[in-house]
Each structure stands twice: as structure tokens, then as C-alpha cells.
């Protein structure tokens, strides 16, 4: 099924569960490889990218000792990495960068990675400073493959978060095995949440991370048996919360077995939703989170989304059906490797009847969107998703609060993020055909 028709919702009601956090699971799986002892990971859920990551890590030596639907028991190899066979990264920039960093730990390495053409279309994939820090060379060969080999470099320029936090993240993960045990960086506060997630993950293996002006310094890992509980996925939470926000009428959604990740991003997300019209209550003792429409008038004004790049477009889509003027800034942090997400969602909600406009700075750079809402949009349109799961979710969310049903394309791509999103909406009373 590649398209659906989403009918306007008069409110979402029911109990549901959501997936575990993909970025937390990605870091836990990598840490398990770098741990010579056993790593138990609980509250696991999978999507296409994390399944490919597990397969890749097994090529580097990760051993699965036990596995069920929600639990993994793994044994890693620490510094003693080798690579057995070709690695499949597909279109995953995360998986590609992770494998490049791991290849740097292998003496006389020659690691082959199978990619797809979408990966090569991104300027941010081949980062010279990333390669120089790791002392590796990346060469594209026949088809859509690359070979990673060792190549000593005396040039060590600072890494940045301009194109992705993952360059710093994966250099940090392998830095405890390096002689210098530090990563040169130039970093502001943007996207700091993902770096913080990495630092907390490394601490589970005893590595202390200290950030001074020009470097991030680390200490050695101390391998030992550890257990990692993966928190709930706040991006999937945002899909549900934005669906409630967009829908007309009263909603009452209870998310069971919700595990709070206590990240900068998650805390900021909760506060933002409360400002723009939701009431979110989390009960730590029983692990339940309840979402309702707020009885208070939502704030108008300016809101920064720089700490929420993975959920920005669905928040914009939801607010297109609300009243009031809202300006969302920080959109230059959105990952646009699959499509120009903010531009597409802006055009799609305008097609539905929203009054939205792009805002450019003095240099002509796009950073913000202004939405002057007058209530539900008209809907009744066909919306392309351009093979992008985040755009697809935003299209669905915008359609929930419109006056007429709309048709959404490329819904199969939801498997890249929240595979059960449509079925979850149906469980909450949404009509989808």
C-alpha cells in the first residue's frame, strides 16, 4: 500500500504503545560492540535502519547471545575489531558514518560498504575533516560501493555540527581507543541534545567526556557487564502529540509503558507542546503518559525548533489547523538529506489552505516559517511525500485537522521511522482508507 485517504478527526481516544528511541538504540548497539563484556539491552523495537545496523555490527564482531521481541544480550570485542564481508548501509548516513569510524580501528583495514545512490547525492556524506581525524580514506568504486582504507593525515581540523552531529558522535565513540583521546571541535548550542545523548551512552562504559573550548576530551573505556534500558522514542511521541494537536474536538490518549529519556530534546518538546495547546502528564511510577488538548488558549509568538530537528515539520503541520500567529525558527537544523522537508511541508499546507510563509534573514538564508492560522484548513487535496517518512507523517497530521479528507502518497516510507503509525491512529479512532 503506497497511498491512503485520511479523514478529518474529531478527536483521538484510547490506549497505545509507541516504539523505543531509535537514536538511543543506535548508540546502545554500537556501545555493545565496543564493550568486551556482555551488554543487555531492554525495551528494544526495530525499524529498517536499526536492523541493518545490527547486521553491520555483527560483521565487525558483535555476537548475539540471546534475543527476543524486546530484549538483546550481546557480547562485543572492544578494540579488537575485524571486518568479515561487505557491509550494507543502503541510504543510511548514520550507518555509513558509523562504519567509517569503526573501520579506523582496524589495522590494515579494507572495509567495503554497499550504499545506494541517494547517499552519494548528499554533500555531507564525504567530510574531509572527519576522514582526516580518523586517518582513513574513502574511495568510491564500481556501482554504489565504497572502500575504506587507512591513510595517515597530519591535518586535524575541528569537526562541526553544521551538516550533522554524527561526525562528532562517531569520532567520540572511537576516541577512547586513540592515543590523543580528544576530538577537535567547533560547536555552539545547536543540536547539543544529540551530543549529550552520546556522552551519557559512553559513560555507561566508564568513559568521562569533558568539553573545553576547542576539544572534547575522553577517558578510556572500562569494559564490564552492563544493562541499557532504551527510553521511548520522542519522535514517535511527537507524531501522536501532533496528531492530537491537529485534530478537532476533545482527545484523550494514554501511552502505556512510556520510558522518559530525560534528554534536552525531550524536555524541550514537552514544554513546547504545552505552550501551543497540549496538556501532557507523565506518571513516572507507572510509566504512563497522557495527552489531552489544553483548556488554555495556546500561545502566539515565536518558537525555536533548533533542538527538535526530527519533529519540526510535524509540529508545523499540526499548527496549520490552529488559530493565531506562530513563527517557528531554527529550521536550518532540519535534516534535509531525503528532501527539502520544511519547504515541502510549507507548500503542502498552503495547498490545503493554510496561510503560511517562509522567512529569510538579511543574507537571504531561510530559517523560519510564519503560520497565521484561522482554524482548520480546507483539505480535500492530494499530497506527495517524496519518499520521505517525515514529510509523509506531517501530511497525515495536517490532514487530521482539515475540513475534508486528503490523499497521502508514499506511506510505505513510514517504516523508516514509526512503522505502526497508521495502525496506531486507527486504534485511536482515526478513519483511514
UniProtKB/TrEMBL annotation:
Where's the Enolpyruvate transferase domain?
12-425
- Which keywords belong to this entry? Amino-acid biosynthesis, Aromatic amino acid biosynthesis, Transferase
GO biological process: one example: amino acid biosynthetic process
GO molecular function terms attached to this record: 3-phosphoshikimate 1-carboxyvinyltransferase activity
Q: Which Pfam families match?
A: EPSP_synthase
Its annotated pathway? Metabolic intermediate biosynthesis; chorismate biosynthesis; chorismate from D-erythrose 4-phosphate and phosphoenolpyruvate: step 6/7
- Record keyword Cell membrane present: no
Protein name, per record: 3-phosphoshikimate 1-carboxyvinyltransferase
Amino acid at each position: 500500500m503506497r497511498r491512503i485517504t485520511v479523514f478529518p478527526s474529531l478527536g483521538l481516544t484510547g490506549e497505545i504503545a509507541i516504539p523505543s528511541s531509535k537514536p538511543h538504540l543506535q548508540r546502545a548497539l554500537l556501545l555493545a560492540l565496543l564493550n568486551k563484556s556482555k551488554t543487555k539491552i531492554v525495551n528494544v523495537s526495530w525499524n529498517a535502519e536499526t536492523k541493518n545496523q545490527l547486521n553491520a555490527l555483527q560483521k565487525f564482531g558483535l555476537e548475539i547471545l540471546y534475543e527476543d521481541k524486546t530484549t538483546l544480550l550481546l557480547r562485543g570485542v572492544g578494540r579488537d575489531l575485524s571486518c568479515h564481508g561487505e557491509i550494507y548501509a543502503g541510504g543510511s548516513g548514520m550507518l555509513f558514518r558509523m562504519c567509517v569510524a569503526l573501520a579506523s580501528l582496524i589495522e590494515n583495514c579494507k572495509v567495503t560498504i554497499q550504499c545506494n545512490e541517494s547517499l552519494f547525492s548528499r554533500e555531507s556524506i564525504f567530510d574531509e575533516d572527519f576522514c582526516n581525524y580518523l586517518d582513513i580514506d574513502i574511495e568510491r568504486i564500481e556501482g554504489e560501493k565504497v572502500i575504506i582504507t587507512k591513510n595517515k593525515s597530519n591535518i586535524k581540523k575541528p569537526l562541526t555540527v553544521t551538516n550533522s552531529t554524527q561526525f562528532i558522535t562517531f569520532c567520540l565513540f572511537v576516541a577512547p581507543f586513540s592515543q590523543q583521546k580528544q576530538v577537535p571541535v567547533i560547536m555552539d548550542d545547536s543540536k547539543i541534545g544529540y551530543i549529550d545523548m552520546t556522552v551519557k551512552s559512553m559513560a555507561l562504559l566508564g568513559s568521562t567526556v569533558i568539553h573545553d573550548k576547542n576539544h572534547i576530551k575522553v577517558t578510556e573505556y572500562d569494559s564490564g557487564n552492563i544493562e541499557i534500558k532504551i527510553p521511548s522514542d520522542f519522535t514517535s511521541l511527537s507524531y501522536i502529540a501532533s496528531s492530537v494537536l491537529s485534530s478537532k474536538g476533545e482527545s484523550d490518549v494514554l501511552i502505556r509503558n512510556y520510558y522518559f529519556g530525560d534528554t534536552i530534546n525531550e524536555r524541550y518538546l514537552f514544554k513546547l507542546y504545552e505552550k501551543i495547546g497540549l496538556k501532557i502528564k507523565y506518571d513516572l511510577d507507572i510509566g504512563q503518559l497522557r495527552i489531552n488538548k489544553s483548556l488554555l488558549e495556546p500561545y502566539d509568538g515565536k518558537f525555536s525548533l533548533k533542538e527538535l530537528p526530527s519533529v519540526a515539520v510535524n509540529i508545523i503541520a499540526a499548527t496549520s489547523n490552529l488559530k493565531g500567529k506562530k513563527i517557528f525558527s531554527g529550521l536550518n537544523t532540519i535534516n534535509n538529506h531525503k528532501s527539502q522537508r520544511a519547504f515541502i511541508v510549507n507548500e503542502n499546507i498552503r495547498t490545503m489552505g493554510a496561510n503560511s510563509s517562509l522567512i529569510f534573514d538579511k543574507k537571504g538564508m531561510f530559517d523560519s516559517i510564519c503560520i497565521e492560522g484561522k482554524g482548520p484548513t480546507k483539505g480535500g487535496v492530494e499530497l506527495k511525500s517524496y519518499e520521505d517518512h517525515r514529510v509523509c507523517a506531517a501530511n497525515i497530521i495536517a490532514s487530521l485537522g482539515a475540513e475534508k479528507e486528503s490523499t497521502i502518497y508514499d506511506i510505505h516510507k513510514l517504516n523508516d521511522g514509526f512503522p505502526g503509525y497508521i495502525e496506531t491512529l486507527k486504534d485511536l479512532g482515526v478513519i483511514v482508507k
